[in-house]
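Hi,

I'm pasting everything inline rather than attaching a file, because the server keeps stripping attachments. The sequence lines come first, and each chain or strand is labelled.
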Amino acid sequence: MKIRARLPRLVAGGATLALALSLSACGSGTGGGSSDDGKIHVLVYGDASNKVEKQIVATFNKTSDVKAVLDTIPGADYQQKLQTIINTPQAPDVFFNWGGGSIQPFVKADLLMPLDDFIKDDPALKSNFLPSVFNSAVVDGKAYGIPMRGTQPVLLFNNGKVLDDAGVQPPKTWDELLSTVKTLKGKGVTPIALGGGDQWPTLMWFEYVYDRVAGPELFEKALGGDKSAWESPESKKALSMLKELVDAGAFGTNFDSVKYTNGASPALVAKGKAAFELMGSWYYAQQQQDAKDFAAKGLGYTTFPAVSGGKGDQADVVGNTNNFYSVLKKTKHPEAVEKFLKLMYSDEFVKAQMAIGNLPTTTNTEKFLDTSASPAYSHFQYDLVKKAPSFQLSWDQAYPPSAITPIHQAVQQFFNGQIDADGFIKAMQALPTE
Amino acid sequence: MTTETTSAPPAAGSRTPARRRSEGSYTAHVGRPGFAWAVPATLFFLIFAIAPLVMVAVLSFMSWNGLGSPRFVGMDNWSRVLDDPVMIKSIWLTLLVTVLGVAIQTPLSILLGVWAAGQQRNRAVLSVIYFIPLLLSSTAVSVLWRALLDPNFGIPAQATWLFGDGNLFGKQASAIGVLAFVSTWQFTPFHTLIYQGAARAIPQVLYQAAEIDGAGRYRQFFHITLPQLRNSVVTSMILMIVGGLTTFETVLILTQGGPGTDTTISAYYMYQKAFKSFDFGAGAAIALVLVVAATIISLIVVRVSGYDKMRSSMEGL
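And the predicted assembly:
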């Protein structure tokens, strides 16, 4: 019986202990500073592009007294892991991100260093990059990121042979797109491949149609907190156009069961079962890997069609502008960090990025376009991005991370008819903007 | 416990007085071994179960995005979570997935298990093949089925008379059907194993007696095998219920909670809130709801099935 009496007290004691531990663990996060081992730590997303990052770090270390160390976090969990370590003593000095909403929570938590002082020292840190790209890492009027990989605009890819067989051209306007869809459907091919199971490929359609109809301002307004933008006539027009496209059977009926990430939707295009796919510029490399012959002979690409009467410039692009390096406020070696960031517009950096198929967004990139693996494609992309009046960052990266899931759910539900235009507008108005 | 007892060889029949004396002191607290014996397990349980649970409970009253210090917000997370239609839906979906799992897997695995307990030809080889899905990780199984069920390149494309346009993941009913099917495919072998062992343990004399009394195979199955498997059914059902309530990887990889929120079960919703939206407070509240629901369900199962006073099914043999 004695043990019985003792047990609740023990549990209570243990609970108190755990509580105290958890509270103190929470508390220690705020006071943490970068552990100073006399080096700067550079944290990047671990993938094939690390080759260049390693090379640049090695170059930096040749001349710098303060050495740089490259740390990588592999795979898709980058943002989760970053968010758990960024406010601890294990935090890096410099880290990879997507600009926009992906760094907004850190700016709000006052963890990041505005780069304005660096830019005052060396204006090239701003002027040597394409403005539409550089600006997507500007938060509240201050620059927080330096572009550090390649740009990834979203393009409309096509299978040239399928188009020839059906006797159609890549559409230049929305009306042409609708009639092309009709023709292709009559020939028994799915007009447009869509990896709806991944949800974010669906979102790309919204990004472009909203831009073409309403211009980039509507989304900027909404992102800035003016939720009435979503119920504007332009917003409703964009939604009705998307609905018309879906109802016309442009994507077939089973797009929600198709994924991009397991290679199913690119295979539809490569095998001629579908004519078009709207996807980021990495699609080219993906097809080269999955379907080499098709990538060499049949793969075509164009910009998104224009919408007559729309407010958006038809040269606008959407997508991932680039990846960025941001700097933590508590870094002990700001001078070394500044020196490191200057390498991001060096010739060596640009050449190394081109060699692995990335398209950097520095002004000197143009000189090296002919050295890339597929010069025509590189020229097309570079001109597109350089001339674009607006380069809209993907919505799911412009919004803070807490909005990603609701955005993805809303676009999927709108495409499969679970919600109508009003439902979509409501869902977007409910998004957290900070 | 004295050294005398531990060092004395257990020589039955030649008990020394010393041995008898220590035995006397042992019976004084029979059934209640020293508290020290419980320390390792208790500590383990405290550190890995109670402590995280308490922390989660505390976190559910806080607003925290993983950065900075958590802030107490009172009942805010709770009122949000309990008012959230997606949360309510996710609980029903979780129950549905669990019930489907039990309803499909139990009869299947009983039949397979009883069959595998026999002495037929090729039985051993086939049993090994049936067992393979269990050896694969849930992640691998999910990736595999996602590819196999692709509407353009998978099984549905070859069997349009059955699957139509193959939009299995685009509609709620078929998406849940896929989830139930994949977990059945993966976990039935495990429960088959439980029933195989249990069926082997049924004394042959029962069947011999039944045969003499003229009972056929079906009567033998329903009147001997099934009643004798009762305790195994309870065990296996509890494992299935726990597995069903904590289903996660299959949803993560097969449907990502979609279409829309139609397969967003509670465990996946918790992950979405905490680790995709960085709303750890709401995630913690959902986790606690799940803990409470699972506790209530397991209490009900234990009560109804008499698991707590499980008796031998071999009384009188």
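Residues 2-31 of chain A form the longest helix (30 residues).

If the labels don't parse on your end, tell me and I'll reformat.
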